[in-house]
Amino acid sequence: MRVAVLSDIHSNLIALDAVLAAAGEVDAIWHLGDIVGYGPDPNGVVARLAERGATGVRGNHDAAAVGGPEIEWFNPDARRAMEWTRRQLDDASRSWLGDLPERRRDGDLELVHGSPRHPLWEYVTSGDIALANLAELEAPTGLHGHTHVPVGWIANDGGVDLVRASDRSSITLDSRRALLNPGSVGQPRDGDARSSFLILDTELGEVTWRRTAYDVEGVQRAMRSAGLPGALVSRLSSGT
Ligand code: ZN
To answer: Which of 23, 35, 63, 151 is deepest in the core (most CB within 10 A)?
Structure first.
């Protein structure tokens, strides 16, 4: 099965459509949460994922969007964008987001937003954190997002190897446990403004990270006319 794995779309429909076009024909679309928040088109993104039959998990922004207390931990810009998002969401989007589970398992793969031990909030940003979470995985391979940075953490003889992924970086899964982060569709933070995602071939165990450009300026215009915070608008140009 050829699967497109998408994370941190953040209400960026223009980026999502560019990624779906670049991914080509796939058997399934899996998402790792933070469908909404920050960007200008929350209902459009939910509708597109629903129409494509995407399955996945909830992120901290999705939990906040449907009324969760998570909003209390947001920084001022994220909070302002979330208050705007809450006002925009229609009933269909709210219900679709509200139904997302915190974890999902599909065969040898486990899906979470942040980390296996703290699905909504933990950022896997170091070898020590990755190692602790590789031990918490219930399946051999974990798929997670939240940091907006495309990387792979591969267990290796009691330690962990870090794969810093760029466009077309590829690995083959073997008996070692792995945590794979596709990076962010809608707000990349690794210094590359292009959307990031990964393609997974579940039979071959092949994982390929991909980047694709989208109309950043078009999204920025929509954000400005929605009155979303300027820092959230400008960071899309630099991918930071
Ligand atoms: Zn996010």
So the answer is: 35
